[in-house]
# Entry
Amino acid sequence: MTLQSLPTTPFAGQLPGTSGLRKKVTVFQQPRYLENFVQALFDVLHGEHGLATGQTLVLGGDGRFHNRTAVQTILKMAAARGYARVLLGRGGILSTPAASAVIRRHGASGGIILSASHNPGGPDGDFGIKYNAANGGPAPEKLTQAIYERTQALERVQISDAADIAIDMLGMQQIEDTTVEVIDPVEDHATVLRGLFDFDAIRALFARGFRLRYDAMWAVGGPYAKAIIEGELGAPAGTVVHAEPLEDFGGLHPDPNPAYADDLVAHLMAADAPDMGAASDGDADRNMILGRGFLVSPSDSLAVLTAHATKVPGYAQGLKGVARSMPTSTAVDRVAKAMGIACYETPTGWKFFGNLLDAGQVTLCGEESYGTGSDHVREKDGLWAVLFWLNLVAVTGQSVEQLVRGVWKEHGRCVYSRHDYDGIATDKANALMAELRAQLPSLGGSTVAGQQIAWADDFSYTDPVDGSVSQKQGVRVVLEDSSRVVFRLSGTGTEGATLRVYLERHEPDAGRQDIPAQTALAPLIALAEAVARIRHHTGMDAPTVMT
Ligand code: G1P
Ligand code: ZN
# Structure
């Protein structure tokens, strides 16, 4: 084995987005593309000529196509960088929340997660890489920005020429002076979850015949859900479906929402539907919850978990506070207010919750994009959310639907929908946002599409812990009655641009809470079109996906 220093030249566009660097697999397959990014990361972390002496790196991914190849490259680069130890999930596998748990439990200095989350996989699909820090959470913007800047100045990459190691076998192996320890990908995460929930109560629930259908969407959540829900909690075999992680997710889109988890929705709407449905995404940090014949909106899910948190052992002491991303509905704000706890509003992306969690200011957080989590790790956690719901159903004796309706009854329903316009030419999407922003000074107080706008702005966030400022996080148009439309461009796509339009209206009247969301939101949909001229800019008559 020898350490090599190989010449390289910068690639354009290695700037991480909402959650890491995501590109087509074919982009990552270019010689030195991955190497450059990892070299830049290590240069920023350890200094250009510095070593990671004595440090532990965690490594794993969602098992998508190219995961196994990328793992071998990164191991050899970690060895060249002098890491004392790399903890690698067996087979190169670690779900995103599990990676966070491993970093925290083993005192690692950080971890590299290989995932493009819910984006499709396979040779023509997407791949991704992100770095999580010692707290187990996604690197903050100042770090991702520094990595990007370093990618633009690279001249060499350092890598060992060692042979590939066996990644499917537990135990220790050596590359240069670095010990690579292949670990069970489930164990640490399971230990953390066991400490939070009443497994006996959930076991008893299944023993009483409660039926769950957990759709792992052919992704990495499968092994975790099988081990815990079927293995430890005694749910019948077959409760977890599509449980085997496939490199291309069976050609499907591993995103747990009504559009892409349509098979699960169909099962929960059927006459003989199970009591509860759940799904997780490509890297198992997202979750979707369904009751029998009933879809739970992610924003409502966060509100329900907040309202009932003290019924679960891990949160019996109460919540320090809660946080939601700005476009997430205000349902949790209303619950938090009634409970007398703080509620923070952050930009989109889990990295913005990290400081609040580390500072002990919040316990639960969530996003409208099917993400919920807590201070047990520093990522959103799909399985955690499912266990939380199971625990609540077990100890309250209420169904999923009853739990949601309870919150609606007390706080009103935040009727909510997100409309996505995918595959817009980037310049057209930028023009739409620029036109919106240009109107901001005059929107407040004006009447558009028959509706009186109270105020409008471009969301800017000052982190209450470190004072860092993130600007231009989404245009908000808010009416007198607190109804609102939010516009922002996605930061996770790999082709063109995606416009996200978030619509929310509060309905206090129980007699009107069952009006279908798209009907109840029709005036806001008209307002969105009037202010943003979506049709004009995109040439699209309807959203690609509505959740
Ligand atoms: C999307 C979601 C966001 C989530 C992120 C990573 O980002 O909207 O809430 O944190 O995926 O899962 P976006 O594509 O909107 O930038
Ligand atoms: Zn994900």
About this structure: The longest helix spans residues 426-443. Residues 18-19, 117, 325, 348-350, 367, 369, 371, 490-492, 500 surround 1-O-phosphono-alpha-D-glucopyranose (ligand 1) (CB under 6 Å).
